[in-house]
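Protein: Heme sensor protein HssS
Species: Enterococcus asini ATCC 700915
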Amino acid sequence: MKTKLYSKLWIYFVTLIFVSLVLLSILFGGLLVFLMRKEIIKPGPDNHLIIISIFTLFSIITGTGVAGLVGRRILAPIRELSANMNQVAKGDFSLRVNEKQPIQEVQQLFDHFNTMVVELDSMETLRNDFVASVSHEFKTPLATIQGYVQLLQTSDLTPQEIADYQRRILEGAEQLATLTNNILRLTKLESATTPLAKTRFRLDEQIREVLLFLRPQWEPKNIQWELTLPRKEFYGNEELLYQVWLNLIDNSIKYSQQDAVVAITLTSSTEYLEICFQDWGMGIPEKEQKRVFDKFYQGDTSRKSAGNGLGLSLVREIVDAHEGAVSVTSSQTAGTRFFVRLPLG
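Structure follows.
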């Protein structure tokens, strides 16, 4: 691989040195003949020192010219790249360099520099969007808590109003806690450098445990569950996968109507397990389905009170960490289906 990458640059230097030596010999021979014809120097043992001095001077002049050519062709673009890298280090990601260079290796270097700057610019944009989104998501529940705390300071409140305000303050605090926990989990997953801690556990039992945990949310809606959960064991991170089912089932509950039906189906093959979560609630528009796993993305503004846009991002990160895949199909008339595929082995 090294030979392939550096061969053209090596050939360039060898050719440059060879041509320089040939040119130096020809020019020096021609100069020597010219000086002899003009009888400036004459053949003889006493003229060796003069010939050597002329050759040395001529070599210095020619070598300086060759060094200048090499500097112009190779070192000048590298100096330009160095200056641009210094600007990038200061946070300027708008720089681009001309990728059309006479030497392929230098051209590749410039091309990689442009690719790097584009990626850094994209990461900086994502970082700014993430900070803005986090700030916005924290601001909403904090404003809610602050508003109801101020209302509680009034003296003419009925017991029912006091209880209602306290309930809303608690909901705001729970929303903040959920947001904080999801951000911490996402950060931990994205920065993880060690393999997940895995154990073997009953996947079907875990999904049933999540249903029982969320019972206070789905019972008031009188949601009916169609469960196809045969006994299946899986080797993975039990705590993280619990968060996957928690977020997906919670979504199904939030967007289902009163007396709705939600189906959970677990199937398997020799290579993978697949869990499908099917609800018949409000669907996701086709143009938004590709972005439902993006951080803080909530296409339908009417749903913003139902979550903070991190649940499905967390689902994707956890499933990816298990080398699996998560996908969604949806229509506004037939509901939504989330598929989680986890490899066995």
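Remarks: Strands lie at 199-202, 224-228, 233-236, 261-268, 272-279, 325-331, 335-343.
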